[in-house]
Amino acid sequence: MKAVSTGSMLSIALPKGRLGERVYGMFERAGFGCPGALDKGRKLIFENPELGLRCFWVKPADVPIYVERGAADIGAAGRDILLEYGPDVYELLDLRTGVCRMAVAAPEGFRDDPERTLRVATEFPNIARRFYAERGRDIDIIPLRGSIELAPILGLSDVIVDIVETGTTLRENHLHVIDTVAELSARIIANKAGSKFKGGRIQEVLRGLEAEIQ
Amino acid sequence: MNIDITSLKGGERAILALRCLYQRRGYACYKMSKFEEYDFYAQNRDFLSSGDILTFTDTDGRLMALKPDVTLSIVRHARIEPGVVQKIFYDENVYRAPRQAGKRGTFREIPQVGLECLGAVDDGCVREVLSLAAESLSLVAESRARVLDVAHLGVLSAVLDRAEPSARPALIQCVAEKNIHELTRLCGAETDTAKYLRALVGDCGRPEEALPALRRDLADCGPALKCLEQLERILSALGDGADFSGEAPLSLNVDLSAVSNLNYYNGIVFRGFIDGIPAAVLSGGQYDRLMERMGHAGGHAIGFAVYMDLLEPLGFNTGALRGPAEGRGEGH
N or C end: fewer C-beta atoms under 10 angstroms in chain B? Predict the structure, then answer.
């Protein structure tokens, strides 16, 4: 199969899921939609030849990879993904959607004992490592891929570092936030090299999206 | 011995064409060993784009490294004479594990062609190296759009001097990412530092547009203005004698977000881009601070490297395929 080149089209990598659909809505309202992009079919790439746009859905953690390696000119990624992977890309716009925070949560009544290594369960080991390194705290990272709240309940970890939106899941599991690591929201990122050649078009899209920010 | 240049692979022809260009301009070929002591690179790890170093134990028990960088070795072994500029070029392989989206990659052999000027480097020498960088881009991809981004690190340093030392690494990262929203959050929207850094990020483009905008926005930041004057002086004379032609023109851009390691680099830094290649294919700049660190106090230096592995997507259907024999006018 022939590879699809980004060519003269502006390629946009969108994260699958609720956040991505919300971001795509902003693109569409700003006049940069691709017909059929929200259809639940098997089609992978959606084009708007009139506007010279192409968009595709990928796993949220893969958006920076597509953009950094130039398969997409721009993309929408949560700040959690950007902080975790540190891709070499431009971060051009805070869409102020998907607003939440990366936080440390612990069981009710938890007291940190500095004489012990702190066991930290997380899906974001790089963020957790940096956060505790800045505080000089010795930690043991327990990398998990989901249901992080379960770890302290079962004694697998002392605390968790995870995304907190409303805090409902934490409360239902008798956990509470003890520290905020970072404020999060969706960001528009761009390939550095691609921006040199498609800068005008990228700015056009950014201006449209800026007008859609609540 | 006659060599049929069409029997060479595209990459080999491109390397040959670059070597010929540098030789014509009076640069001498520098050949170096593939190995150096591991300690040397370990002591200068923060200069390396990837901190990973491929090591092995030599027969005498010394821990050695396959060289991850060329410039470090050249500067280490250079003999600097007052009033003299040493002009050298190289065609070497380096061994690195490039990072991708923050993850450690595996080691790769990366071919690099580049040049260095060491010693009494002045503005004229900086201009010559910038011209050669532009010509190198044209030589390997004359049919594609090309951009040479140029910055002066002194402007960023002057603005950062106003910020708390502990805040500087985060601000440098924001500038490199053109991340205005985070930069504003860190500095406060109305502070002079935020205003200047936003100008650094936003006032980019062709020199005749970007430089007046930067002068206006940095008007109250004296040390930054001096660096801008030097940048303008160098760029204004750059067209003289430089070959910027090709099927598609080369664009010269001012972009002060092109940040390099401030512990080593100073003054003019630059990066070259080719349409269709997702990363800078050429990178260079002045590195007086590295010279000082290597014991050449008062010595100046500038150089650049072309990353030949990144050029693979081109298929080398470019000017380089014509090869030096068909000439840009001069024989070898």
Answer: N
Cα–Cα distances (Å) from A132 to A139, A153, B228, in that order, read 7, 22, 40
Binary contact (B177, A87; C-beta < 8 A) = no
Q: Which two tokens stand for residue A106?
A: 């612990």
* Lowest model confidence (mean pLDDT) among A31-40, B150-159, B172-181, B257-266: B257-266
Contact at 8 Å (CB) between B141 and B274? Answer: yes
Which residues are within 8 A (CB) of B64 and not within 5 positions of it... i.e. 6 or more apart?
B35, B36, B37, B38, B55, B56, B57, B58
Do B82 and B297 form a contact (C-beta atoms < 8 A)?
no
**Closest Cα to residue A123, out of A103, A143, A151?**
A143
Amino acid at B302: I
Q: What angle do CA B281, B283, B289 make, to 5 degrees?
A: 165
Decide: residue A135, CB within 10 A, 0-12 exposed, 13-18 middle, 19+ buried.
exposed
Q: CA nearest B174 in A: which residue?
A: A91
How far is the C-alpha of B279 from the C-alpha of B295, rounded, in Å? 33
A182: closest chain B residue by CA:
B182
DSSP strand pairing (A74-78 vs A175-184): unpaired
Mutate to test the interface with A, among B179, B184, B201 (most CBs of A within 10 A): B179
Q: How many CA atoms lie within 13 A of A168 on its CB side?
A: 2
Residues facing residue B301 across a β-bridge: B118
Buried b (16+ CB within 10 A) or exposed e, B285-297: bbbbbbbbbbebe
- B239: its two tokens: 């067209």
Bridge pairing between strands B108-119 and B250-254: unpaired
User: How far A188 CA sits from the closest chain B CA (Å)?
Assistant: 10
Collapsed DSSP state (helix, strand, coil) of residue A82: helix
Q: Which residues in chain A touch residue B149, judged by CB atoms under 8 angstroms apart?
A: 196
Chain B residues whose beta carbon lies within 8 Å of the beta carbon of residue A91: 177-179, 181-182
Please report the pLDDT score of residue B262 as a whole number.
82
B62-95 pLDDT, tens digit per residue, is 999 999 989 999 998 888 888 999 999 999 999 9
**CB burial readout A13-49, b (16+ within 10 A) else e:** bbbeeebbeebbebbeebebbbeebeeeeeeeebbbe
Indicate the pTM of the whole model. 0.89
Element of type H or E holding A23: helix A18-29
State the best of B50, B147, B174, B177 to mutate against chain A, taking most chain A CBs within 10 Å: B177
Using the Cβ of A191 and the Cβ atoms of chain B, whether some distance falls under 8 Å is answered with yes
Cβ atoms within 10 Å, residue A83:
18
